[in-house]
Amino acid sequence: MVIKMQFGKRILLLLCAVLMLFSMFPAIRSGASSGPSLVTTLTDNAVQRGSKKNFDVWARNAGGEKIRAIVTHNGTRLEPTWDDSEKASYTLNFTEEGENIVTVSASSDGGKKKQLTYRILYRRAEPGEEIGRAIWSVEAFTVGCGYIVEPTEVPIREGETAAEQLLRLLSENGLVGYYGGTAKSSFYLAYIADGMASGERYNSYLRSAVPTEPRRLDLSPAIPPLLTPHLEESMTFFDPDDYGKNWVGYLGEFAFTNGSGWMYSVNTVFPNVGFSDCYLSDGDVVRVQFTLGYGADIGGFSSVGTSIPDVGTQPAGGYYPVADKDRLTEALCRARTSGLLGRSNVREAYNAAQDVMAALDAVQETVDAAAVRLHDALAHPADETQSTGPDDSSSNGSTETDSIAPEPDASDPTPDVSATPETAETAEPVSGTPSETASDPGTDSEASQGCRSTAAPTLLLLIALATAPILTAGRAGRRREGNGRNG
Question: Per-residue pLDDT for 414 more than 50?
Fold first, then answer.
């Protein structure tokens, strides 16, 4: 009798699952026809001082496949500066002062269309005039060497490229860069090297200007244990001692692995254009990062494209989720210029923030908490001072000391940690709030695009309960099949 009752319960659960499956069909059809999605890195009602500005566009159909967007600037259609499988990059050239209209639109899924409209106020600047400031850092966390150049503000001058700013930053910090192309065209950063490097060329790459106060890189690489198994599996060449054997004083392409080199992100996005095609705006955060695995170790693999050796062996989603550390980078920059690093609570928060930056797989909650802690310490510095220790010197040899500089305004905004944490790999950049229009030849509601059905997890649970005896018997003694090491 008990066996019959249990059998009846399982049959009832299975029937419920089948009914739910049929009920989901209209929702599935609705999701498939909800129309395209658009995300950009533009901000509506922004004030633009530079005559050029880059931005990216992510256009997807309802199935998540990349589609082509149409971009216009004051009615003139723009072609992408670069287009890859993830996003398309565009460059705006401003010639008309005042309001400029930029529209981004896409059509898919039976003629459904979505359009975003941005209004940008252009105020012309003279050539060479400072039009804002960006925060730059040069990072070697993937080889255990921390910052090569700690977060610092760099002036943005009208007409100059990010390549020109980078070379100036390296020179001011006592280093040189070896590069291909020019700072205005086809620039490629191959190596960052000792400031006293004597060769005008290294491996055919041209050296930048010799700094007035040169210094050595002085690196002692130690590959983080987190990276080793990934590199052993995905790289055709990996030697953790390679720098000491072949590259002392020169950190760049092909050191340690066949997938190493320099990459950069602007506001968490890894551009698919080079430094010489990048034009920065006030408030941008630029992180120049050394990678050992075509960007898979720093959250930038998708921007490399598929024209790399053994692309089939590389993880499409990276080695691990990578958090957005831009706000933490901003907080570190502010702390370094505050004159408060001698205060005990500021120094402790600063050191803790650097530890979080060094943690390649730090989760977003930890990153945000470190930024909040450092902002709070700067807003309420302790009275007591802390004696300087071995880690109190910045990467370029300068030492931050306590001073009589005024304390930061306690009203300074701190990072918002109330939102759901996202990683740089999975989260698309948040656009501004442009005027948005959508046309729909059908009857689906635009608001329905953001709805998620909870029926699918419930359905899986019911099926699992109903078929548990069968699955258990079939699973015994069989190794789990996955979709690769991240599966």
Answer: no
218 phi and psi, to 5 degrees? Answer: 55, 55
DSSP annotation of 244: I
Name the strand (E) or helix (H) holding 332: helix 326-336
Rounded to 5°, angle at Cα 226 from 363 and 327: 30
Q: What is the C-alpha to C-alpha distance for residues 46 and 28, in angstroms, rounded to an integer?
A: 38
Q: What is the mean pLDDT of residues 242-260?
A: 97
Quick one: residue 254, left, alpha or beta (phi over 0 = left, psi -120 to 50 = alpha)?
left
What digits encode the pLDDT tens for the residues 415-469? 343 333 333 333 444 445 677 766 554 433 333 333 333 333 333 333 333 333 3
Is the pLDDT at 369 greater than 70, yes or no? yes
Report whether 361 contacts 386 (CB < 8 A): no
Helices (H), 173-249: 228-234, 242
Q: Which of 41-50, 114-123, 322-331, 414-423 has the lowest mean pLDDT?
A: 414-423
304: phi then psi, degrees, rounded to nearest 5? -75, -30
Judged by phi (left if over 0) then psi (alpha if -120 to 50, else beta), residue 387 lies in: beta
* Residue 101 token pair: 């209209």
Tokens (6 digits) for 178: 């070896």
What span, in angstroms and rounded, lies between the C-alpha atoms of 241 and 246?
A: 9
Distance CA 297, CA 257 (A): 12
- Main-chain dihedrals φ then ψ at residue 423, nearest 5 degrees: -105, 160
Would residue 45 be called left, alpha or beta, if left means φ above 0 and alpha means ψ between -120 and 50 degrees? left
Structure letter (DSSP) for residue 390: G
217: amino acid identity, one letter: L
Distances (CA, A) of 269 to 219, 326, 424: 27, 10, 8
52 three-class SS: strand
